[in-house]
Design goal:
Elements (H helix, E strand, L loop, with lengths): L2 H15 L6 E6 L1 E2 L10 E2 L1 H14 L1 E2 L2 H10 L6 E6 L5 H12 L4 E5 L11 H9 L3 E2 L3 E6 L2 E6 L5 E2 L1 H7 L12 H14 L3 H15 L14 H8 L4 E5 L12 H19 L5 E3 L10 H9 L4 E3 L18 E2 L5 H13 L4
Parallel strand pairs: 1-5, 1-14, 2-3, 4-5, 5-6, 6-11, 12-13
Antiparallel strand pairs: 7-10, 8-9
Helix pairs in contact: 2-4, 5-7, 5-8, 10-11
Length: 351
């Protein structure tokens, strides 16, 4: 048996053992907010989030990420343990999520993309939603040079997008197979393209879209990132831990090593300066296995983090890689459905 075959066999054995062993589940949230349009499926409403917390408090062992890493180092995991995390660093983490976390005494970690802290701008997926998927008129033709690739669209009738059109299609999201109008197709295509770009190339494309749409950079209150003062308030009391999520929310595998070093180390340095204490955890933006590399993991270790969260589904079992912890995206559903969903994860019957 060669080395690769042996490694694959060991992975298979671990997968078979995990359903019968003590395990944890790390939940990934992004936003706790009431949004009229959520094409990236990032938000859970405050009412639904409260239902989730009730279920977790009544039926599971809710622990912090720092506690989980300590248990993993000791080789033990509390029965039916769950960890809550949030990515990106929206202001609603402070105003909507934290009061509910305090009410139910549930710890959480909020990962902040530090380059957006206090900035009067939205994340690019939010800005594109505001430019493309809101009511209003746009030019009928869009031609873009996106890092050397030319894209062209004709909007046709959807150049005029009425309130009725918006109401009809505001439930659309990128998980759906169809694009009901060219606007949704432009949104889907640009989000996928911008994801792989450098920050400079991404900003060039956004500037071109703004110019075409006759818009200027702005930040809607409901999509606002946290400020430095709000990050300090978020961490007060010790229930919410703050972690680093790079500077620009870059796909780290798509940028050079030196740029990865800057994104990772600078995000840690800036947050530590704001908080006045060391950070112990990191979250890879987007977080699929293709969104970072072994080199990225090494940089995170060398930067002084003690663990890092990815974004591929799975339970956390004994022997888990502390720098590639799997997470499961929490569904936007009510308490009864959420309880059944959690139960399937702990029994090994995943959706």
């Amino acid at each position: 048996m060669n080395l690769l075959d042996r490694r694959e066999m060991l992975r298979a054995v671990r997968r078979l053992r995990c359903p019968f062993a003590s395990k944890a589940l790390i939940l990934l949230y992004h936003r706790v907010a009431e949004l009229s349009s959520d094409p990236q499926l990032l938000a859970v409403t405050p009412a639904r989030f409260e239902e989730h917390l009730k279920i977790l408090r009544e039926h599971y062992t809710v622990i912090s990420l720092e506690q989980l890493t300590r248990f993993l180092r000791e080789g033990k995991i509390p029965h039916r343990s769950v960890v809550l995390t949030f990515d990106d660093g929206y202001a609603d983490a402070l105003y909507n999520a934290k009061p509910l976390l305090e009410r139910y005494d549930v710890p959480a970690t909020v990962y902040v993309a530090t380059g957006f802290v206090g900035a009067d701008r939205e994340f690019y997926w939010d800005e594109l939603e505001g430019l493309l998927l809101r009511p209003g008129n746009l030019p009928e033709h869009l031609s873009l040079n996106a890092a050397g690739t030319i894209f062209q669209w004709r909007l046709g009738q959807s150049a005029q997008y009425s309130e009725a059109d918006y109401e009809r299609w505001r439930g659309w999201n990128v998980a759906m197979d169809n694009d009901p109008t060219p606007r949704q197709n432009i949104y889907r295509t640009l989000c996928a393209r911008l994801l792989q770009m450098s920050e400079e190339d991404r900003e060039n494309v956004l500037n071109a879209v703004r110019t075409w749409a006759g818009a200027t950079p702005s930040c809607r209150p409901i999509h606002r990132p946290l400020s430095a003062e709000e990050i300090v308030r978020l961490s007060e009391g010790g229930l919410v831990e703050v972690g680093a999520h790079t500077m620009s929310h870059a796909v780290l595998s798509a940028i050079p090593t030196a740029a990865q070093e800057t994104e990772i180390r600078e995000s840690k340095t800036r947050l530590e300066a704001m908080l006045g204490r060391p950070l112990f955890s990191f979250s890879y933006p987007f977080g699929k296995r293709t969104d970072y590399t072994e080199e990225t993991v090494a940089i995170v270790r060398q930067a002084g983090f003690r663990c890092a969260c990815s974004n591929f589904p799975g339970n956390v079992c004994r022997g888990a890689d502390l720098f590639q912890l799997p997470r499961v995206i929490a569904p936007h559903c009510g308490g009864k459905e959420f309880r059944g969903w959690l139960r399937r994860w702990f029994l090994g019957f995943r959706r």
